[in-house]
Design goal:
This protein has about 350 residues and is α/β, with parallel strands linked by helices. The chain has two domains: about 1-120 and about 305-345, Medium-chain alcohol dehydrogenases, catalytic domain (Quinone Oxidoreductase, Chain A, domain 1, Alpha-Beta Complex), CATH 3.90.180; about 135-270, NAD(P)-binding Rossmann-like Domain (Rossmann fold, 3-Layer(aba) Sandwich). It has ten helices and 15 strands. Helix 3 crosses helix 8. The longest helix has 15 residues, at about 290-300. The protein is globular. The N and C termini lie close together (about 5 Å).
């Protein structure tokens, strides 16, 4: 059979290409994609050619473990229905709705262990946020916010907003978010931010706790904006003994930091966070499956489909990427839907 696949052919260009797809082997299933989400972080870095050539796209996802070069496929949030089984696959997999960390394709082959069945009754537009929700859960695990702490989140894209929603369930003293775009700040307040600012410059008046004789500052900052300059601002906002969790992947963007007096005297801890692995502190008790289950629980509570601002037919994907690249202020989450592609195969 044939399928349609999204291919990054060169900087600022994606194409929908028709390909031949074999039938499932004895241990595989055939999945028909219904909806997928575009990452405004890593995918846009790839779209803009801001990833180092040869960089591994994801070391833990089989479909994405190759080094980056054009042309390439990418994407890691697809929801679909299983429509065909290999002879060794148990029949209960037939017609099951599943999530997959898979590039944008109308149909694909997979082994059942690589697929995640959706909870009964979960809307597709909520389920497609699983990868981003898992990332937000991972940030909270790494940051470990303590009751009464001031927490600042730089960046209110999809992952930043989900992180804010999770922090809203923690007994923090202040949850302060920072983003340039009014649309995102408005959503941030709806999801539980106490204050949402367009710049860090006035943040001190919201940080009311006197941490030490060295002055005030945030106890915990998350940098998830994707902008290197925000990390430097996070350092300036962090108080004595505070922590900074970096969730951004800057790609080839240069990072210039002021590690002068404020950083030097305040014993600030900076830690990277990446969802492909689990912090060694938790590895004895936590597995990927356990974290996925927590992410599903949070999806059911937060209902992230309300973050969707635009939905495009799959064959108009080039328009979706252009919108994210040129008018990010108008978007939060952009989805692709596959009705026409499924009819034409």
């Amino acid at each position: 059979m044939d399928r349609y696949a999204l291919v990054f052919t060169k900087p600022y260009q994606v194409q929908i290409q028709r390909e031949t797809l074999s039938t499932p082997d004895e241990n595989q299933v055939l999945v028909k994609t219904l909806v997928s989400s575009i990452s405004a972080g890593t995918e846009i870095l790839l779209y803009r050619n801001q990833l180092k050539k040869g960089a591994l796209l994801d070391i833990k996802i089989p479909y994405l473990s190759h080094g980056f070069t054009y042309p390439t496929k990418y994407g890691y949030s697809s929801v679909g229905r299983i429509i065909s089984l290999g002879k060794n696959v148990p029949p209960q997999w037939q017609d099951k709705l599943v999530f997959s960390f898979h590039p944008h394709e109308s149909h694909f082959l997979a082994s059942p262990p690589d697929l995640i069945p959706l909870p009964s009754g979960m809307p597709l537009e909520d389920a497609v946020f699983l990868s981003n929700m898992e990332t937000a859960v991972n940030f909270v695990m790494d940051g470990n916010p303590v009751e009464g702490e001031n927490v600042v989140v730089f960046g209110q894209g999809v992952v930043g907003l989900l992180l804010t929603a999770l922090l809203a369930k923690k007994p923090c003293l202040q949850r302060i978010t920072i983003d340039h775009y009014p649309l995102r700040r408005t959503m941030s307040m709806r999801l539980g931010a106490d204050v949402s600012l367009d710049t860090h410059e006035n943040i001190q008046k919201f940080l009311g706790n006197k941490k030490s004789d060295n002055g005030t500052g945030a106890d915990l900052c998350f940098e998830v904006s994707g902008q290197p300059a925000a990390l430097d601002k996070a350092i300036q906002c962090t108080g004595f003994g505070g922590r900074i969790i970096i969730g951004s992947w800057y790609g080839t963007k240069k990072v210039l930091l002021d590690l002068g007096e404020h950083f030097h005297r305040n014993r600030i801890h900076i830690q990277s966070s990446q969802v492909s692995t689990i912090d060694p502190r938790f590895s004895a008790d936590w597995t990927k499956e356990r974290r996925i289950n927590v992410a599903f629980e949070m999806i059911q509570k937060i209902k992230p489909a309300r973050l969707v601002t635009h939905t495009y037919p799959f064959h108009q994907a080039a328009e979706a990427y252009d919108l994210l690249d040129t008018h990010p202020e108008k978007t939060i989450q952009v989805l692709l839907k596959y009705e026409e592609e499924n009819r034409n195969v």
